[in-house]
Amino acid sequence: MQSDLSIREFKPQDVREIIKLHKESEDFFEEMDINEEFIINISQRRDFRFFIAVLNGRVVGCIGILFYTHVGRAEIGPIAVDKKYRNMQIGTRLLEKALEFLRDRKIHRLISKVKADNQGAMDFFLRRGFQKEGYFREYTKKREDVVQFVRFI
Length: 153
Hints:
The chain is an alpha+beta fold. It has one domain (2-111): Aminopeptidase. The chain is 27% helix and 35% strand. It contains 4 helices and 7 strands, in the order βααβββαβαββ. The chain has helices at 15-24, 36-43, 90-104, 119-127; strands spanning 5-9, 48-55, 58-68, 73-81, 109-115, 131-136, 146-152. Strands 1-2-3-4-5-7-6 form a 7-stranded mixed β-sheet, with helices on both faces. The protein is globular. It starts with a strand and ends with a strand.
């Protein structure tokens, strides 16, 4: 199954699938109004990249990275995989693509913020070389706690 998986950069025609992935996992994300205009606008920023996982012609995952080449830092957000395709290494492949992209730009520090009640995401990052770096109380609009993870690359 994984051999049919490809990871590529975002295309504007992916926008509806990105929104669907976000809505499917919205409990794990910051409360934001994610719409087509927002996705298109952020995808056009020079300091942001979306990578898309495609399996048998279908968008099944995405990862976004905000990066600052002048200081060598980046942040993941979002990362999402369709519920039907989780635990198939798709998130890992997306992360690997993001890491390759960041290394090419001499980024050395990558963070991810995860809601404190999202144990699955915390385990995902820990298994992939991230370390807990900080704990932010009442960080989200809904006053949820967030754990920050870091990986040096």
